[in-house]
Design brief:
single chain; Hypothetical protein af1432; 506 residues; mainly alpha; three-stranded antiparallel beta sheet; three-stranded mixed beta sheet; GMP Synthetase, Chain A, domain 3
Length: 506
Amino acid sequence: MPYIELGIVLGAVAGAGIGYALRNLLGKKQVLSAEAKVREILADARSKEKEALLQAKDKAFGIIDEAKKEETRRRQELQSQQQRLENRENLFDKKLSDIESKEEVLKGKEQKVDELKVEIEKIKEQEVTTLEKVAGFNREEARSNLLDAVEVRMKDELLQRIHKLQKEGNESLEREARDILSVVIARCASSHTVETTTTTVALPSDEMKGRIIGREGRNIKALEQLTGVEIVVDDTPETIVITGFSGIRRHLAKRALEKLIVDGRIHPARIEEAVEEAKRDLSVDIRKAGEEATFEAGVAGLDPKLVQVIGRLKYRTSYGQNILRHSIEVSFLAAMLAEELHANTVVARKGGLLHDIGKAVDHEVQGTHPQIGYEIMKKFGLPEEIAYISIGHHEDPPKTLEALIVKVADAISGARPGARKDTYENYLHRLEELEQVASSFEGVEKTYAMQAGREVRVFVVSEKIDDYAAMKLARDIATKIETELKYPGEIKVNVIRENRYVEYAR
């Protein structure tokens, strides 16, 4: 057994030695093989490096050759351009020299021409002097004599020609204007109602007359004082008449009476309430009248307060013609004339409606209605071309075509048969003057012309005017009326001063 184990150990040792020897042999072979491969790779790399260097040198030599060729080409081009420039410069120098020589020649000729001009002028002066000596007068006298002779010879012929042209032009213009106006008037056919100074109120019975008059006439006096009209109660059955030159006052009194008749209570306190209610209703009616007028005339964009002023024209007349209807008609006519004449239709239409707007307040504001109307329109922001029409339709001639058109339309509207009455306007003017004279004194609150101008009632402020001053005021007003106004018969000046104290029991 021991021998066997020993044999195994020895075998193992021998195997290990043999394996180690084999391993060393194999390792040496592998190292030699690797070194050979490395040398082979290095040799291959060196050969490739040499080839790359050779190729790079070839490329470099090629680039250098190309660069030299390009440089040579550019140098040749520059030389060619330089040659052309030198040729051009030589050509320009030659032309410049030619121009300078020609300029010298022209200067010489110009100098000769100037000398010839001077010589010609001298010869001309000599000839003129010789002619003046021969004719016996100078150049100005000759020109004047020639013109005088021509004027004398041609004067009659020119006058005849001018007269003929004017006649033909006037006839042509007149025919054209007549045609345009005929077309416009035919397109606008409006009815006319001449205003009067009376308004009637229907009563339910004659018994109502006594209630309206009141005890000792206190009711009718209160109504007359509050409205500024005269109420006539006569034998006409179931009717009373309100008279006054102001349409607003008459309609105010009529509305107040109608309210009192419906209510049945007629006494001074209730009359005051009815008058205040009638004022409010009348204000609404005026606003509606203004809105209807602007709608009918086709005018939009006006301030509501200006529309209210337009509505006041419903109760204003001119020579008996209602101003609101007249203004609407002028607006229509002006718009149609503007269409025919190719003018501004919008300006003509608005200007026609507003041309008499100053008459709505001329009883309350100092000044003529054209100037008042202009200021009203400027106050409400209307353009100058529209505002000017208020003044322009009374100028001769107006400055703008639209103002001239409105002036013509205004004349057409007023000239229609039955449209106006001169005596009516004179009557209203006299009553207005009467009220203005009475209102010119200090302390006067209200004035009313009554009984067709035979009486003027003057209401004064009791705190400023005492009884003695009221008596003196009546005398002063009468004296001023006698001095400044013309009137038939006599005028009664009635100065009214009253104190009123109101208290409520609670």
